[in-house]
Amino acid sequence: MPPSDARLRRLLAAFSGLRVVAIGDLMLDEFIWGKVSRISPEAPVPVVNVTGESYYPGGAANVARNLREFTPRTAVMGIGGTDAAGCRLIELLGDCGIDTSGVQRDATLPTAVKTRIVARNQQVVRVDRERKVALTPPQLELAMRQVEQVARQVDAIVVADYGKGFLNQQLADHICRVAREQNRILAVDPHPYTSLAWPGATAIKPNRAEAFLAAGVPVAEPVSPPLADRPLLAVGEQLLARWGCGMVLITLGEDGMLLLEPGRPPVHIPTRAQEVFDVSGAGDTAISVLTLALAAGATPAEAADLANRASGIAVGKLGTATVPAAEIAATFSPA
Questions:
Q1: Residue 229: active-site member
Q2: Which residue among the candidates 161, 189, 229, 284 is catalytic per the annotation?
Q3: Contact (CB, 8 A) for 15 and 306
Q4: Separation between Cα atoms, residue 306 and residue 333, nearest integer Å
Q5: Strand 156-160 versus strand 19-24 pairing type
Q6: Comparing C-alpha atoms, which of 286, 316, 317, 281 is closest to residue 303?
Q7: Residue 208 main-chain phi, psi, to 5 deg
Q8: Buried/exposed 92-126: b ≥16 CB within 10 Å, e otherwise
Q9: pTM surpassing 0.85?
Q10: CB within 8 A of 48, min separation 6: which ones?
Q11: Is 202 in contact with 186 (CB distance < 8 Å)?
Q12: Among 105, 156, 194, 217, which residue's CB has the most CB atoms within a 10 Å radius?
């Protein structure tokens, strides 16, 4: 039985009083907006006449930005460069009111930048400027101390692993251990190629392709309805057992989400998206709302429902957009 709108409305209202931190790889998202009027005579590619540029926090920084839509007590942890992109990122986070005291700065590290060129509401190309760099022993030691400190001050921890080097198994184990000791909600958006384990996490949220990759199983074609998708169900159960977590929520794009919990039958949550303009950052919106809902006392099914509503709104926006609480509340029936 789906959760009632009245119950979901109460959970959503509780978000503003929560304290939360996003931990992971920090990036800068750059959007170059323009118009296409012709094809280049040099190659069969469109010529984009630039009309504007926009910058947003990306990666784990975008998770923090999404969290900040719901609660003013939002912090972020990670590492960034001291280059122009890194300074712009810290400034953007500060402008949002996000606590950046947990961000380490490294003058030798180029800040990861993802540049998307958009014309006529369509992404023409994405250009990534990044270099994967592992933490040095002093940086790792500082990060572990910061985790211990921040865990005492928050209700929930969100980890966003983009595979850029900030997270390793030693830090992952430390985050999980501290979260257990402090009895904190720990939700993880995993990266399939890092193969990090998150023992005892509250929730882990891969997308469909990531779930198959994490399980080491070739990606199978989707089957509709998802509850009849035997390869997907088998992968979900395998990950639930391997990760030893409280729940696995697999996002399925236009097919919604699949929720798996130990000892319970899987639950399919159909998508609420009306139109899909851009999926950039939709996963960040989903993990943010999922985490806050769990911290507010939601059951896994209730948290997944709210996350599904939020991501359905996010994909209807262009760019790495956030979803205000009022827009989620608008999906409920009248009180």
A1: no
A2: 284
A3: no
A4: 14
A5: parallel
A6: 286
A7: -60, -50
A8: bbeebebbbebbbebeebbbbbbbbbbbeeebeee
A9: yes
A10: 32, 34, 35, 36, 117, 119, 124
A11: yes
A12: 156
d(CA 254, CA 275): 10
pLDDT in tens, 283-303: 899 999 999 999 999 999 999
Q: Cα(64)–Cα(162) distance, rounded to whole angstroms?
A: 14
Residues in the chain: 335
Question: CA-CA-CA-CA torsion for 157, 160, 166, 169, nearest 10 degrees?
Answer: 70
Structure tokens at 188: 């993880």
Distances (CA, A) of 24 to 58, 60, 76, 78: 11, 5, 8, 5
Q: What is the pLDDT of residues 86-122, one digit of tens each?
A: 999 999 999 999 999 999 999 999 999 999 999 988 8
Supply 105's token pair.
């700065």
Backbone phi, then psi, for 303, in 5-degree steps?
-65, -40
Question: What domains sit in the chain, N to C, each tagged with a CATH number?
Answer: 5-36+45-329 (3.40.1190.20)
Q: Which two tokens stand for residue 120?
A: 């006529």
